[in-house]
Design goal:
The protein is mainly alpha-helical. It contains eleven helices and two strands; from the N terminus they run αααααααβααβαα. The protein has a two-stranded parallel sheet with strand order 1-2. α2 (about 30-40) packs across α3 (about 45-60) and α2 packs across α9. It starts with 10 loop residues before the first helix and ends with a helix.
Length: about 190
């Protein structure tokens, strides 16, 4: 199957590319998880975080925002001893802070989707070097998230989040995932 070259041949990365990346989701837990994990990715490669995702799910209460928002300092300190996650205090604190900010939002799902006018932005790039690192929508989302109290939500991170959750679809045109994800929602079964 022709794929976007960025996923290489690592089976975990290939599965993520084929089954998750760019697929529009309105599942609040998945959106929240992706936003938090993108924060852990800051300064690292996505595959590093992806390899640790299952452990993060175990340690961070399955990304339950309520439980994560209530994470104690003692528990956070315990997490810093876990070699199965990225042991960065600022990123762990940000996960808790972001859960608290998430819970303050009236309805996070339509709010997030409002940055793309409630429909995936379908791009038609031929080469990886055409895919931007940041877009005006990602910059607007970053500003809004920061204003709402989130951290580790810079514009580049926000664009990666938008790509991951299908707010923006950036599979290259020669990738086998492009055509099905570029089809109208009614044809995708949504």
């Amino acid at each position: 199957m022709p794929r976007c070259a960025w996923c290489g041949t690592d089976p975990l990365y290939v599965r993520y590319h084929d089954e998750e990346w760019g697929v529009p989701t309105r599942d609040p837990r998945r959106l929240f998880e992706s936003l938090v994990l993108e924060g852990f990715q800051a300064g690292l490669s996505w595959i590093t975080v992806l390899r640790k995702r299952e452990r993060y799910r175990a340690v961070l209460f399955g990304f339950d925002p309520q439980r994560l928002a209530e994470m104690s300092d003692d528990y956070l300190e315990q997490c810093l001893l876990d070699p199965g996650i990225i042991r960065n205090r600022q990123k762990l604190v940000a996960a808790r802070t972001n859960a608290q900010a998430w819970l303050r939002l009236d309805d996070p799902v339509p709010w997030l989707w409002s940055f793309v006018d409630d429909a995936p932005r379908i791009n038609r790039f031929s080469r990886l070097d055409e895919v931007p690192a940041v877009t005006p929508e990602a910059e607007a989302l970053s500003r809004a998230l920061k204003k709402a109290g989130f951290s580790f939500v810079g514009p580049t991170l926000c664009y990666a989040f938008m790509q991951a959750c299908g707010l923006t679809m950036d599979h290259l045109v020669d990738c086998e995932r492009h055509a099905p994800l570029a089809a109208p929602a009614s044809e995708r079964g949504h």
